[in-house]
Amino acid sequence: MTNTRRSRSRQRLGYSRGVQSLATPSTQTWIGSLLLLALLAGCGKPDPADHYVRPEQVMDFAKLFGQNCSGCHGMDGQLGPAPPLNDPLFQMIISDSQISDLIHKGREGYAMPAFAIAEGGPLSDAQIQVIVDGVRKQWKSDLPAETPEPPVYQVSQDDPAGVRDGNVDAGKKLFTTVCMKCHGADGREADGQSSGDGGILSHAFGELVSDQLIRRIIITGRPDLDMPDYVELGKQSDLKRPLTEQEIIDLAAYVRSAQHAPKPVPQRVAL
Ligand code: HEC
Ligand code: HEC
Fold it and tell me: Which of 100, 155, 174, 184 is the least crowded, having the fewest Cβ atoms under 10 Å away?
């Protein structure tokens, strides 16, 4: 009570009569201890890290990734709503220029935005390079020497997952053999943390993801959500061996065709 009143009257004094009149012996000690505190706290030496850095001058990978990517790809490049980046197999199949290109231009039609200033984004070419280098340094690691050559990231640029030439019927059979035990016959199981309530074969999920993403997930799985990669997917199924390139293409073709199948007419409307 008394303290509050005193500090209130100090404030009033300060405003009305100026600093001069504040310099009574007791306020002198008060100011003195404040100065001492300030010195002890190191206020005399400004910390360069506290300086405001203009957004276009940020060149630190952790900051750039934290501000621009982690909201979707997760703090450590995993467990976000967008596909994980911290996966060694993914890092092995994608090239520096593909990563750089994606950051520059985004993935048109999907939630991956364009970041280059030239594309209306916030980042300079130099900053994008810092991110590419950081993503590599942080998450690219050598796979064991005996690892067989994995499938390519893209079958071709205009048909990344090769779905045009894929065999939908063969893909459907493979889905039953390889994917159904976790995703269910209609793709509704595996309790979609990322694929939503409709499941991976739903129209709604299909709208959100690109052909490229489907291919990539069949190759790398989602290690952060316990979906195995193409080697383990095949080995753990009746095939008892890694999926082949053609099987990956056929699976992607089937998943896409199921997602794009006409929506079933609702039987009744829930109120
Ligand atoms: C051992 C269980 C398991 C098997 C087998 C499996 N998955 Fe998955 N899959 C998961 C889990 C768990 C998730 C994450 C939760 C979700 O999205 O449903 C997932 C997610 C996905 C996603 C969404 C990924 C994302 O980033 O949103 C796709 C697409 C997918 N799986 C396709 C397949 C296909 C195609 C096959 C067969 C070739 C397959 N899965 C086999 C467990 C499995
Ligand atoms: C608003 C959400 C969002 C932000 C922010 C974002 N991404 Fe993405 N990103 C996505 C989505 C969604 C995809 C997958 C799109 C698809 O193909 O369906 C993706 C795909 C990617 C891919 C390709 C992954 C693959 O499996 O093919 C890379 C690499 C990538 N992003 C890097 C980055 C980097 C680096 C940043 C920061 C500079 C970033 N992203 C910011 C949502 C985002």
Answer: 184
pTM above 0.90, yes or no: no
Asked which of 139, 155, 178 is the last residue of a domain, the reply is 139
Q: Rounded to an integer, what distance in angstroms lies between the CA atom of residue 233 and that of residue 104?
A: 33
Nearest ligand 1 atom, CA 251 = 35
The Cα 263–Cα 240 span in angstroms is 35
Residues 6 or more apart from 130 whose CB is under 8 A from it? 59, 60, 61, 64
Sorting pLDDT into bands at 50, 70 and 90, what band is 37? low
Domain limits at 86? 55-139
CATH of the domain at 135: 1.10.760.10
Residue 237 CA: nearest ligand 1 atom is 5
Q: Identify the residue whose C-alpha is closest to ligand 1 atom 6.
A: 179
Task: Report the C-alpha gap between 220 and 233 in whole angstroms.
Answer: 10
